[in-house]
Prior knowledge:
single chain; Ribosomal Protein S5, domain 2; 3 domains; two-stranded antiparallel sheet; elongated
Amino acid sequence: MAVQSMTGFARAAAEHEGTAFAWEVRSVNGRSLETRLRLAPGFERLEMPAKQAMQRKFARGNLQATLSVSRSGSLAQPVVNEAFLRDVAGLARRLEEQFGCRPASADGLLALRGVLEVPETVEDEDVRKALDTAVLGALDAALADLEAARLAEGAVLADVIADQVSTIEKLTRDAEADPSREPAAIRERIAMQVKLITESANGLDEQRLNQEAALLATRADIREEIDRLKAHVAAARQLLADGGVVGRKLDFLAQEFNRESNTLCSKSNATSVTSIGLELKAVVDQLREQVQNLE
């Protein structure tokens, strides 16, 4: 199963017995799934089935779907309220005669509310159900196109994330193989630090000296951080291979990567390891930005 991005756009249009309609669906990043609808007047009844269709298709993201509808003139012919028009036209003539107002124009009279009316089309239950089925079918087509767009972007993101995970693995190996971690180098550093301790503390006994040396060695040991970084690399690769809804899990791993790189920097007593740790932090920050876009 492939991973998906949470961003995308799609449009699907269709026609059913004189009624044309179109869906536009947009998706952006979100912590969970949030659906919003903008439906054409008279189609509010489709809110629930439309939301259910979106929920079946996606697990995360802020989705907005807009439905526009237009009907052919044969279905809804405008009707002139002639009685009301005569009254309004008579009033316009009296105003013209008594006050010298400009003569009323035909388009001006027809633009008055109540003069020109478009009656609502009466649909029986079977006709309405058939139209609803066609409209929801177009929504399904739009959602399928949106899914394809999210999958295409998700594939690109997966490659970017995989490269970043590989970089983290390389830096982890660099830290593990750094010459400063060789036993001889560690002994030399501890010896220098112990010398500083003995010079600054008169009468320090041998047992205390051994304790301080052991403490220095423990604080400088990054074996645990390296092992955890390797485990997180393996877990990230497995999630990318499994696919599906992995955005949150990868986000959690990115936080763990960040924690280990911080600890590695704080434990480091060699500039070479510190440099590797800082580079690790930079790559992890980039990784965290990318996984925020995944479903």
